[in-house]
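Priority: medium. Attachment 1 of 2:
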């Protein structure tokens, strides 16, 4: 499934994309702020498909946002994880980081390391005061992991966060068997707002970011980590 020209021939392809669509539908219904992007250029972006009559039709993004208009809905089932947030805990390293503070809060933490083993590093926060609800809605606090270098034909995964209560997300590369250059460079962006609230760490001057290798980590190198605010 890692090759675009053949992905649709993999049986798991359709199950995967159906579940992504289902999760997006769930996300939009669990909070008032969870809305589709309303940028007109994005909404009016069109794609050409052949319909059931083998006729070429143009479909825009806005045509695909409401699954009911597309003629289907998802079964209403219990979603256990919605009501079972793990209890947060502050690690020893996190307490040390808070006590020590950081000289320049807007700095980027440079690594230049291979993620062969678990890595923990202190990352400063540009804005350290507890923000009001409106401020959080206007600007999302984002963890940015830059300069992720890896081999395109190697399965790669590493998690950001040491355990369930402090888990922020994952980076994954599905192998691509192609003749072009094997090396690739990418960037991972993860929202921190809800996680910092759960940890009671909104006033902390810095956060401890832990990278946990899962597979293919010996083929991954991390450039730097920073925190920024995006509108």
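Attachment 2 of 2:
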């Amino acid at each position: 499934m890692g090759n675009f020209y053949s992905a649709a021939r993999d049986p798991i392809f359709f199950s995967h994309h159906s579940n992504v669509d289902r999760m997006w539908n769930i996300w939009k219904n669990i909070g008032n702020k969870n809305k589709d992007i309303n940028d007109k250029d994005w909404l009016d972006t069109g794609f050409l498909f052949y319909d059931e009559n083998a006729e070429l039709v143009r479909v825009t993004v806005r045509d695909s946002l409401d699954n009911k208009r597309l003629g289907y809905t998802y079964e209403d089932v219990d979603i256990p994880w919605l009501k079972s947030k793990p209890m947060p805990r502050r690690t020893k390293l996190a307490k040390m980081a808070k006590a020590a503070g950081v000289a320049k809060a807007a700095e980027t933490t440079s690594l230049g390391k291979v993620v062969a083993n678990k890595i923990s590093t202190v990352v400063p926060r540009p804005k350290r005061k507890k923000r009001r609800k409106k401020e959080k809605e206007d600007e999302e606090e984002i963890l940015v992991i830059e300069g992720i270098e890896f081999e395109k034909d190697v399965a790669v995964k590493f998690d950001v966060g040491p355990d369930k209560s402090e888990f922020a997300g994952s980076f994954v590369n599905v192998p691509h068997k192609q003749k072009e250059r094997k090396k690739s460079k990418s960037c991972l962006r993860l929202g921190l707002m809800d996680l910092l609230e759960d940890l009671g760490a909104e006033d902390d001057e810095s956060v401890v970011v832990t990278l946990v290798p899962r597979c293919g980590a010996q083929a991954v190198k991390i450039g730097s980590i920073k925190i920024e605010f995006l509108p």
